[in-house]
Amino acid sequence: MTPAVFSHGDLRLYLLSLLAESPQHGYGIIQALTDRTGGTYTPSAGTIYPRLAKLEEEGLVSKTVDGRTTIYAITDAGRAELAAREGDLAGIQDGLADSVRLIANEVRQSVQEAMKSLRADLATAAQDERRTATSPPATATQAPRDDARISSRENLHRADAAVNAFRGQVRATLRTHVAKGGALPVAVVDDLERALNAAADAVTRAVSSTR
């Protein structure tokens, strides 16, 4: 299970720390949280705005409306609470760094496991092709079913199934992660692209070796 980025109540204090740096509108706060977590956490508006409203009710945050934009700012009472909980904020920041590392590692591991499975399927397919290429010609007494089983067309269907299964597994992993409020770090996407390129090269070499 993907670890939570913020424990209960921690996001409230972290929002105060962001507003202590400068007033922000809601989208700016969401973007700041995304940037601070290296893209592994992008909160929804439904997560941020109710907490801002609660902070405003407590007198810790004020808001001003400029046209269609609402700007939130920390109040003196908010700064006082932030100062009183300075130690708690330091712990939140340390925990946030740990959570971001765990999420990035989890996504990277999922991609690596999917690639490992694909490489195993490709190796099996290559072995089948080599056995087919070195096997003696079929005799008239061999069953047509055996010929069909080792045909290139059937192997092509197997390869298609392996690629589709891999694609489905990776898409499910990534979409589930994003649906839980996470985002994809650039490093993970780079790893995925490199792994896919390596897999494509392996397929090319395996196919070329059977000619």
From TrEMBL:
Record region (Disordered): 123-150
* UniProt KW keywords: DNA-binding
Bias (Low complexity) occurs at: 133-143
* Domain Transcription regulator PadR N-terminal per the UniProt entry, residue ranges: 15-83
| Pfam families linked to this entry | PadR (PF03551)
Q: Which GO terms describe its molecular function?
A: DNA binding
Q: Which PANTHER family match?
A: TRANSCRIPTIONAL REGULATOR YQJI
Identification of the protein by name: DNA-binding PadR family transcriptional regulator
